[in-house]
Amino acid sequence: MSLPFATTRTLKKIPRPEIASHDRPGDSWLVIDSIVYDVSTFADFHPGGAGILLEYAGKDATEAFYGLHRHDVIVKFGPRLAIGTVANESPKVVNTVGAFSQVPYAEAPQVRKGFAQLPYYRQSHEDVRNFMRQFVEENVREEATLKEETGEAPSKELVLKVAKAGIFQARLGPGPHQEYLSQLGFRLPCGITPKEFDFFHELIVTEELARTGMPGFFDGLGTGLVIGLPPVINFGHPSIKERVVREVLSGEKSICLAITEPTAGSDVAGIRTTATLDESGKYFVVNGTKKWITNGMWADYFSTLCRTPGGMTMLLIPRGEGVEAKPVRTSYSAAAGTSYITFENVRVPVSHVIGEVGQGLKVTLTNFNHERWFITSEVHALTRYVVAECIKWTNQRKVFGTPLISQPVIRQKLARMISNVEADCAWLEALTHQMMHMTYNQQAEHLAGPLGLLKFKVTRTAALVSDEAVQIFGGRGITRTGMGRVIEQFNRFYKLPSVYGGSEEIVADLGIRQAMKKMPNEKL
Ligand code: HEM
């Protein structure tokens, strides 16, 4: 018999009449999904109160339990409280931790039972998906759930594991840099070669990490690297590049991208942080402030866009004298390490220039498409995850004696959410396919606009999904613990990606402006 938790105890078979005789305070057993729990001592510690729990002493509490608790309560408390199983019965609740869910629309079409294989995917993509699903369940989910609340950085132990598994490297996407990283001894997950590795592998890695439903922790675990390291890999001075890449990709040190300022966001050209050469000509002296810098709280390096005479220059600034990071208290979670950075007379060697002096904007823009695409992948995976939570809840929660799903108004809400998420998925896959068949310059010409529109679409879907999900979960959707915690978390998060990486207005406008550049003189 498969139990929802691991236990070293031998669980005896108990007939229902025997269970019914343990029906009073101090001697209370109850049944949840055919497993018998002795709650005699636990009752006084039950967060919902002893009274309501003891109403079920001697009885089957399955339906009442799943109307009020997430399955993970059983996973956590089961080993302590379970004493047996009901004779001739076995658990019916499906435990999908680490497995692929059969809940309708919970998984991408590619892994949906009965669906044909999509042309974008090969066996190596499924290998990466299986590997990531297991890796996340075994190593990430528990810590993510804890740290999302406490707002702490990922543990060193986890960072090193992620690095060793090649996950940081995979999040940097395909390209010639993968060959360089492999020459440095870094390996992609599942033994994939740099040549084989493509955007669909990266998409899967991002989606699987996002499926913890903990976006703050997701960002804490390497988003700074995804946007901060590419400038160093692609444009770093040979004298520092290899050392920094080794330190960051091995998990020993961390990096972030520092562009945005209190007075300059989507209008990057408006930044005010200055870097001026000192008298020796060997150092830049940096002064200024950066705001909303993901991972900045614990980053060792800051890929920082500065104003230099005649233009803008990106500098790799190590944490040190004159660099100070303070937390920015955003609405999602401090686990992302979002920070306010001040640079006061920070001396940076000229070898730390990333790219050419005066070419900082070009270096910055180089990574924009990839950044927008990866934000879109993360948000899309989260919307699917939230929809799956809603589908499960509407089946498990009973109102006026019937499950929520039996209400037409609820089914309308699910239909709106699902149809948007499925459409986003198809568009995301179609553009990802295009990215694989275009050079960098072709992508800039043909895909910057569509990727902007896709990001706009997915963050609009996120707004709809969050809104409907809260309505479906009611009070639980605005409560940080218990049944609706994923919904509440998502509700605090979904506005962030609609403003960072190019606000909805900016990316939507980019999409249309880019299309209009190619508008033929065609008349109605
Ligand atoms: C093995 C049995 C049980 C365990 C281990 C357990 C554990 C918990 C825990 C950890 C919570 C905190 C909220 C959460 O994390 O979801 C909770 C809340 C609660 N529990 Fe239980 N529980 C059990 C059975 C029951 C039963 C049979 C009932 C009867 C209806 C019940 C009623 C409640 C209520 C009303 C709350 C408060 C829910 C809320 O705040 O919305 N529990 N329980």
Automatic annotation (TrEMBL):
Organism the protein comes from: Gonapodya prolifera (strain JEL478)
Gene3D superfamilies reported for this sequence: Acyl-CoA dehydrogenase/oxidase, N-terminal domain, Butyryl-CoA Dehydrogenase, subunit A, domain 2, Butyryl-CoA Dehydrogenase, subunit A, domain 3, Cytochrome b5-like heme/steroid binding domain
Cellular-component GO terms for this entry: cytoplasm
MF-aspect GO terms: acyl-CoA dehydrogenase activity; flavin adenine dinucleotide binding
Residue span, Cytochrome b5 heme-binding domain: 11-87
Alphabetic keyword roster: FAD, Flavoprotein, Oxidoreductase
Family named by the database record: Belongs to the acyl-CoA dehydrogenase family.
Cofactor(s) listed: FAD
InterPro entries, A to Z: Acyl-CoA_dehydrogenase, Acyl-CoA_DH_CS, Acyl-CoA_Oxase/DH_mid-dom, Acyl-CoA_Oxase/DH_mid-dom_sf, AcylCo_DH-like_C, AcylCo_DH/oxidase_C, AcylCoA_DH/ox_N, AcylCoA_DH/ox_N_sf
Origin superkingdom: Eukaryota
Name of the featured protein: Acyl-CoA dehydrogenase NM domain-like protein
UniProt GO BP: fatty acid beta-oxidation using acyl-CoA dehydrogenase
